[in-house]
Design brief:
Blueprint: H1 2-9, H2 12-29, E1 31-36, H3 44-55, H4 61-96, H5 113-122, H6 136-146, H7 149-156, H8 167-171, H9 174-178, H10 186-191, E2 199-206, E3 209-216
Parallel strand pairs: 1-3
Antiparallel strand pairs: 2-3
Helix pairs in contact: 4-7, 5-6
């Protein structure tokens, strides 16, 4: 009879476990995990940075310091890519002739004078693709090249180059970036292209809901981590 009463009233320990399960389910329902997937350069990392900026603690000093070197590296690497592609276009036209006006791309590529000199210098080993600051001299090379029609046309007609849409933002504001006191703005940090390697995660709360965002590299060699 005593045992029946115990079953009727319920085991206090069972009740406690049941309540813990209910609480855990409620908590889990407010804990959301979002995985960002997509091809390289599709904007996953930019979206990731925007979420961190808006809903997280904003960009920290460490982010700003890291972004400065990333911006320097990105500007030099992307201008090198444009120049190398433009040089290939010039060589191709020298060997095969300029396309007719009826062709889809009848632009005539030329690199002459100061532009040719700047192109050869920026593609030389004197300016490595990474790890150096953008000095006033390098800024002048970038300006000379970006003001050239052949370089600009190489940018607008690019297909397989790893040069992103935001490149002009940095090329056209190169004097600000070359200043010794340069500090990246939020816009600079959002627009700089840094291929994601490995996995990055960030958590933040929005209206009592916890979100964990996971950013995974989109290049083919990173997809095994998906």
């Amino acid at each position: 009879h005593t045992q029946n009463m115990g079953n009727c009233c319920g085991d206090p320990q069972n009740n406690m476990v049941d309540q813990e399960l209910i609480d855990a389910r409620k908590k889990a329902s407010k804990d959301h995990k979002l995985l960002l997937l997509g091809a390289g350069s599709s904007g996953k990392s930019t979206f990731f940075k925007q979420l961190c900026q808006i809903h997280g603690n904003g960009f920290q000093q460490q982010d700003i310091d890291q972004a400065r070197q990333n911006i320097y590296d990105c500007i030099i690497d992307q201008m090198k890519q444009l120049v190398e592609q433009c040089q290939e276009n010039v060589k191709y036209q020298q060997e095969n002739g300029v396309p007719n006006e009826d062709d889809e791309d009848s632009f005539e590529y030329n690199l002459n004078g100061d532009v040719l000199e700047a192109a050869e210098y920026i593609c030389s080993s004197k300016i490595p693709r990474g790890g150096i600051d953008i000095t006033q001299d390098i800024a002048q090379l970038i300006t000379t090249l970006w003001n050239d029609e052949s370089i600009k046309h190489t940018f607008t007609s690019r297909t397989n180059l790893g040069v992103v849409d935001s490149a002009p933002h940095f090329f056209e504001d190169i004097d600000r970036i070359a200043d010794m006191s340069y500090t990246p703005t939020d816009k600079d940090i959002l627009l700089v292209r840094i291929p994601t390697t490995g996995i990055r995660a960030a958590s933040f709360n929005v209206e009592k809901n916890k979100f964990t965002i996971v950013d995974v590299g989109g290049q083919r060699n990173e997809r095994s981590k998906w």
